[in-house]
Amino acid sequence: MNVLIVYAHPEPRSLNGALKDFAIERLTQAGHAVQVSDLYAMDWKAVLDARDAPARDHAAPFNPSLDSKHAFASGTQSADIAGEQEKLLWADAVILQFPLWWFSMPAILKGWIERVYAYGFAYGVGEHSDRRWGNRYGEGTLAGKRAMLLVTAGGWESHYSQRGVNGPIDDILFPIHHGVLYYPGFDVLPPFVVYRTGRMDEARFAATREALGERLDTFWSTAPIAFRPQNAGAYEIPALTLRDEIAPGSSGFAAHIEQAVAAEALSD
Q1: Which residues lie across from 152 on neighbouring strands?
Q2: pLDDT of the residue at 260
Q3: Left (φ > 0), alpha (ψ -120 to 50) or beta: where does 36 sit?
Q4: Is 222 left (phi over 0), alpha (psi -120 to 50) or beta?
Q5: Within a domain: residue 247?
Q6: 3 state SS of 222
Q7: Cβ distance 109 to 98 under 8 Å?
Q8: For the chain: N or C, fewer Cβ within 10 A?
Q9: Domain at 173, CATH number
Q10: Residue 110: Cβ-neighbour burial (10 angstroms; 0-12, 13-18, 19+)
Q11: Where are the alpha helices (DSSP H) in 143-221?
């Protein structure tokens, strides 16, 4: 399999750097081909602006969506954007690796998403009608590929629990899981999260490596998060709200995930 790691940490000697090197080694030893987009090492341009569409009409105001659409369709995108899109198309699986900064990804990774996810590539694709609303949320250019977040956090795991002060980690990561990854079609695996990174001794680091290795070894057999596909009947179109019979009484992030129902034991 082909695996792309999009890595966002400014210090190669960090915990993230060590985990990234370990992931490359583990995946390579298992026979997978690995590419890494090390955004800080690449000096990645994080700002989406008119320079990303060099052939645009410079007499007109810059329109991020429409100029992105024209640049992608006409093959006039900046070379760094086109190169990352090629990597995404090459990959069977993508790992986004980053430290959790201010409850989200670092700005450089957000900028990678904004620039690489061009109109016509990651969004704005498919039929828009009263029957379908584009190929997204389970469909799209990147459908059939797998994705996982590898995230480090300074806080304790309990801080990110259901009653923790920071809020549940699944809720914090939902915009990335559902919006950044599921939207263009990825099958999104549960995240691999390392907590309390400031208290990482050798024994805990060894245990973390072992746990990460197991996740990488089972990457293609792990069940993805059961997000509800947009065009499979769960949502009213074009309102794009859940039908009344779907998850009645439920709202918020959890309503958009199919909950497993335990089978009741049958008695004679």
Answers
A1: 99, 194
A2: 54
A3: beta
A4: beta
A5: no
A6: coil
A7: yes
A8: C
A9: 3.40.50.360
A10: middle
A11: 169-174, 202-217
Residue 261 DSSP code: -
CA atoms within 13 A on the CB side of 249: 0
Containing domain of residue 110, as a range? 2-224
- At 142, is the secondary structure helix, strand, or coil? coil
* pTM for the predicted model, two decimal places: 0.93
Residues 154, 124: Cα–Cα separation, whole Å: 37
Using CA atoms, how far apart are residues 119 and 105, in angstroms rounded to an integer? Answer: 22
Give which of 141, 140, 166, 136 is closest to 153, Cα–Cα: 166
Is the pLDDT reported for residue 265 higher than 50? no
Cα 107 to Cα 46: distance, rounded to the nearest angstrom: 7
Position 126 pLDDT exceeds 80:
yes
- Per-residue pLDDT of 193-241, as tens digits, reads 999 998 889 999 999 999 999 999 999 999 999 999 999 999 999 999 9
The total number of structural domains that make up the chain: 1
pLDDT at 154 over 60: yes
**261 lies in some domain:** no
| 3 state SS of 55 | coil
CB contact at 8 A, 116 and 88: yes
Question: What was the pLDDT predicted at 41?
Answer: 98
pLDDT band at 268 (very low <50, low <70, confident <90, very high): very low
Q: What is the pLDDT of residues 79-104, one digit of tens each?
A: 999 999 999 999 999 999 999 999 99
Asked whether residue 260 is assigned to any structural domain, the reply reads no
Sign of CA dihedral 251, 252, 253, 256: positive
- Cis, bond preceding 238 (omega within 30 deg of 0): yes
Q: Give the whole-angstrom CA distance, residue 213 versus residue 22.
A: 8
